[in-house]
């Protein structure tokens, strides 16, 4: 009787490969266009909190712009460009569209690695449609968290990290019990309840390390030279919490 062959190490779900391909094509295309056009793309599709705050309190946003302009010419140019540049109608797409843009090849590669690692088990368990919807929720939750903490920020936030963080949060609900990724009978491990997660040392260690590392990277990543731009750790946390608490809504294996 012929033994069944081993599964390849990089046997990624089709939907994960699709997302990786889309993100890569967008990054390559942006690298080939003029900087002025790329700046216009960032202004139109990046998530700029001050543009939303401007709808509520124009005075506060303009006062903040004038304040930073008096301190730095670069900041003055950032505020003068990103705040009024994009058409208002496109504003409501930015809590999602920002997730398809990255700050460079390194940014994309790191996000791609995490997407492959944590998105794959989530996609296999939830199915392609629910997987994509969870990513949308994570991106929007990340944007909302970033807006809540930095409502007057004039520079756009970009990157898929918040959506990927949602996959990490969802994965934390089922990958750490024995057989969380795969079991001998191919049946899925049930999602852990919050109480079960608290009682699971591996799960809590992962959650603690994730939160601490994100905060450290967010607060010191730029100073340490890890990132050329500030890391939006608040968006990561927003996405992670969305995936953690909303995972049961997307789990196609849940009991009816």
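^ structure tokens above, recovered residues below v
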């Amino acid at each position: 009787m012929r033994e069944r062959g081993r599964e390849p190490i990089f046997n990624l779900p089709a939907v994960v490969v699709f997302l990786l391909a889309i993100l890569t094509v967008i990054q390559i295309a942006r690298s080939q266009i003029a900087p002025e056009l790329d700046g216009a793309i960032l202004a139109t599709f990046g998530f700029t909190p001050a543009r939303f705050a401007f709808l509520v309190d124009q005075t506060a946003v303009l006062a903040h712009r004038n304040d930073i302009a008096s301190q730095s010419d670069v900041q003055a140019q950032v505020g003068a460009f990103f705040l009024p540049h994009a058409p208002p109608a496109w504003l409501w797409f930015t809590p999602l569209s920002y997730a398809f843009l990255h700050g460079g090849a390194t940014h994309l590669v790191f996000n791609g690695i995490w997407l492959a690692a944590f998105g794959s088990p989530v996609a296999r368990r939830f199915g392609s449609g629910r997987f994509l919807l969870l990513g949308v929720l994570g991106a929007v939750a990340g944007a909302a968290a970033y807006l809540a903490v930095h409502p007057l920020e004039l520079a756009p936030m970009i990157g898929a990290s918040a959506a990927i963080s949602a996959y990490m949060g969802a994965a934390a609900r089922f990958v750490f019990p024995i057989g969380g990724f795969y079991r001998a009978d191919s049946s899925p491990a049930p999602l852990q309840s919050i109480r079960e997660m608290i009682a699971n040392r591996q799960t809590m260690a992962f959650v603690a390390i994730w939160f601490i590392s994100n905060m450290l990277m967010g607060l010191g990543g730029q100073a340490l030279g890890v990132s050329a731009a500030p890391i939006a750790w608040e968006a990561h946390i927003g996405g992670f919490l969305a995936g953690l608490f909303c995972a049961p809504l997307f789990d196609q294996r849940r009991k009816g």
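The domain at 14-250 is CATH 1.20.1540.10 (Rhomboid-like fold).
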